[in-house]
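Because discrete structure vocabularies remain unfamiliar, we turn briefly to a single example record, giving the amino acid sequence and backbone structure tokens:
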Amino acid sequence: MPKGRKRPRGTRLGEISSGTNDMANDTNVLEDSTLPIQPQNQARFYVHSLDHSRDFSGIEPEISKLSMKKRGRGSAKLSDEWDSGVKIQVTLNEHGQLFGVREQYNKFISALGALARMGTYLPLNYERWSNMPLDKLDIVWKDVEANTTLPPEAKKIVLQTLNGMWRDWKAHVKAN
């Protein structure tokens, strides 16, 4: 087929290579009338043109299973260590950024994300983060302070991080 020319719908590659659409001369056409039909993203099944008495009712549930949306990993949950009395080792570096051993830091960030998604701590009914009542932010900070080794100077950076996570969660909920 010349470059840039599209193949007509319903034809196979071998059918128009000679410039004609004559299926009688095509050696790739099956003499048997059993042609595979495979709808896109669905289960493969065969249609027999000679046998019209076949029942395809059992195929429907199989196709619907394949068309279901694949689930992702889901949201992170609060660590088992979070309210167990064991403190997550996170601190601030000389630039005022959160810092810690990778495993501990990841647990901390995951816990912050879980707190940002908790409607009891940070409800979504406020239009902006700046409208969030200070008592709610203080409750979250006290919970973070009780479960980490962060100094009081880290409150601002923790609340800024929670702000971004809360806005992302709110946008996600509104989009779905």
